């Protein structure tokens, strides 16, 4: 290799080395830009000047804090009323209606002790109040000879399963029953059900007129009576009780008989 060639090789090597160093420096600068963390941006700090609050302002602030920390009245309600406000309003209305109804209720009706003793002496059990009603002119008419008990007004379910099925599925069913009159005399009558277009009525007949004509029973139009049911050895029986304090019949037996035999419809 000549001297010229050696000189050219040195120059080329030096140039390559220079370019390599320059390239390395540029590459280092780029990498340092990615790796260097960003400096937090400086924000302006506000200078807050505090002033001393007066005594009244301090009390107002304490009251506001107490209100803010106090539990909400809604949270004190039951879960149902919190989730369903309308349900709470309905419950309140129902409570008010129930309270008003309870205050207007009449005392529980009780069978007079003398009649109860007679029923128990017969072996009677399962005593129930069937209805309390005011006798109509038709109830006391000898031409009708029956006491009606509207089914919808019955105060208790006094029929057993067999009797109920007979009344609902038989045309003109009749049950022989024993009836104790207000004068404590026992007589045999018939119990049946009349089916109307929109309603049904229980009827006690075939012997009712005789009970109505007895002056000692005092059964005339306008008198309020109670019909009680009971059972003797499983058989259906009734007791008629005259409610005291209702209309009094005329003193003479002829007047009473005349009143009971009125045939005017209700």
Automatic annotation (TrEMBL):
The keyword Transferase does not apply. SUPFAM superfamilies: DNA-binding pseudobarrel domain (SSF101936). Transmembrane segments: none annotated. It comes from the Eukaryota. Its main location: nucleus. It holds the Pfam family At2g31720-like. Keywords: DNA-binding, Nucleus, Transcription, Transcription regulation. The keyword Transcription regulation applies. GO terms for cellular component: nucleus. Residues 28-73 are annotated as: Disordered. It is found in: Nucleus. One of its GO terms (molecular function) is DNA binding. PANTHER family: B3 DOMAIN PLANT PROTEIN-RELATED, TF-B3 DOMAIN-CONTAINING PROTEIN. This is B3 domain-containing protein.
């Amino acid at each position: 290799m000549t001297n010229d060639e050696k000189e050219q090789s040195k120059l080329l090597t030096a140039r390559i080395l220079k370019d390599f160093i320059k390239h390395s420096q540029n590459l280092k600068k780029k990498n340092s830009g990615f790796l260097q963390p960003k400096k937090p941006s400086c924000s302006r700090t506000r200078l807050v000047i505090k002033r001393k609050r007066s005594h009244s302002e301090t009390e107002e602030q304490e009251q506001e804090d107490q209100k803010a920390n106090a539990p909400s009245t809604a949270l004190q309600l039951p879960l149902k009323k919190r989730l369903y406000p309308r349900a709470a309003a309905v419950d309140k209305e129902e409570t008010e209606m129930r309270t008003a109804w309870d205050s207007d209720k009449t005392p529980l009706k009780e069978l007079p002790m003398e009649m109860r003793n007679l029923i128990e002496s017969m072996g009677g059990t399962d005593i129930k109040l069937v209805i309390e009603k005011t006798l109509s002119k038709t109830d006391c008419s000898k031409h009708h000879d029956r006491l009606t008990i509207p089914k919808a007004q019955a105060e208790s379910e006094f029929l057993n399963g067999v009797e109920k099925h007979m009344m609902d599925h038989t045309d003109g069913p009749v049950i022989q029953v024993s009836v104790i009159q207000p004068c404590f005399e026992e007589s045999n009558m018939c119990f049946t059900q009349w089916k109307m277009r929109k309603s049904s009525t229980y009827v006690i007949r075939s012997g009712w007129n005789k009970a109505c004509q007895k002056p000692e029973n005092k059964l005339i139009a306008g008198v309020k009576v109670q019909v009680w049911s009971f059972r003797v050895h499983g058989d259906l029986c009734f007791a008629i009780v005259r409610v005291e304090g209702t209309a009094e019949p005329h003193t003479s037996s002829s007047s009473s008989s005349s009143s009971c035999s009125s045939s005017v419809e209700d």
